[in-house]
Amino acid sequence: MRKEEIILGIFLIIIIPFLSANHIFTATSTSFNEDIIATYNFSIQNNDTGKDANITQVKITIPSNLSFISGTQGTNANPGSFSNTSTVLTWVNSTNYLINGSETKFFWFNGNTTTPGNYTLTIETTNSSGTSSSIINFTINLVVPTCTENWTYTNYTECINGTQTRNATDSNNCNTTNNRNALSKTCTIQNPNITINTICIQNWSCTNYSACVNGLQVRVCSDLKTCGNLTDKPAVNKTCVVECVADWDCTDWAPAECPKSGKQTQNCTDLNVCEDDKIGTQNCTYEGSNTWIWITVISTIIVLIIIGAIIITRYSKKKTDTLNETFGFPGAPQFPRGPPRGPPPSGMPSQMMRPPMQRRLPTMVPRLPNQPPY
């Protein structure tokens, strides 16, 4: 063997392990139901060692008919940036790393598809050693809704050739006959030339099914013909699923008077704990405050009282001054009290010498025409 070939072989033995990354990909679940949002979770185990083993990028390529739910991606790896297209989800940390050597980290997202079948997605990881990829197979299961048959029957026909028949209808249209009763039965004719043997034909009448209690609904059925046998008696119970019905208890709208914002709220609690508590909101009409109206009315009343008091005071004072001037009260001309001493002054009538209260006030009597003066 030549020396060059030996050197080349040694070089390949040393370098090949570093040309392919050693990463293990595992899906926590590979089976999902159709038309249901599910979490797709994957673990990535980095078996490379050394500084160059750090994974800096993880890329997941999903099928085109698997819808990625935006904002549901997550990882417990070292923080990095995330970007996505409709079918490619990418985590990157080129500055440092996402997964260190000899670490196992998880990456997940939520998705939904309405088409059952088998699908594949691809996971790629990149580090200084290269890129490693793996295909993950998963299945979307067809979900068949359960259907409970509910049969109603017509009456049996007359006995013809030893057989009576009837029809049945499933009101739930389940397209199955697992719980359907017989549609025919044998009968006997005593004398075909005269009469048909009288056979009691059951005629069942049933009440409506009761409410669902402990996963079961019941009803009562009675034979209107009272034939005395239960051969064709319909089912009297069926399974059911209890549905939680919310029972809301709400506070009064607050605040009681509509605020300037025009919004009132109330808190509602579901007494059956079917749903979370809610805060209700309604629009209202803000009518403003009536305080200014009362202030205006009261102020007007006070002003009117003051004006009335001033008018009454002035009127009373004017009347008092008139009386004083007329009857000699303060403000009127004053004369000496008692009879004057000595003869009256020259030119003064004797009546003016009387005290003011004794003087005879002139009487203003209207004169008649042609009446001489006083």
List the helices and strands and how they pair.
Layout: H1 3-15, E1 23-27, E2 31-33, E3 38-46, E4 57-61, E5 67-68, E6 74-75, E7 81-84, E8 88-92, E9 104-112, E10 117-127, E11 130-141, E12 151-153, E13 163-165, E14 168-170, E15 184-186, E16 204-206, E17 216-218, E18 221-223, E19 237-239, E20 248-250, E21 263-270, E22 278-283, H2 291-327
Parallel strand pairs: 2-11
Antiparallel strand pairs: 1-3, 3-9, 4-8, 4-10, 5-9, 6-9, 7-8, 10-11, 12-14, 13-15, 16-18, 17-19, 20-21, 21-22
Q: Between the first and last Cα atoms, what is the distance in angstroms?
A: 181 Å
Rg, Å, rounded = 56 Å
How large a portion of the residues is in β-strands, by DSSP E?
25-35%
Shape: flat
Query: What is the CATH first-level class name of the domain at 3-141?
Result: Mainly Beta
In CATH, the topology of the domain at 3-141 is named: Immunoglobulin-like
How many strands in all?
22
Helix tally equals: 2
Q: Give me the secondary-structure category.
A: alpha+beta
Strand order of the largest sheet: 2-11-10-4-8-7
- Helix proportion range: 10-25%
Low-confidence stretches: 7-20
Mean pLDDT: 80
The main sheet comes to:
6 strands, mixed
Q: Can you name the CATH architecture of the domain at 3-141?
A: Sandwich
Elements, N to C (H/E): HEEEEEEEEEEEEEEEEEEEEEEH
User: Looking at the chains present, what oligomeric state does this protein adopt?
Assistant: single chain
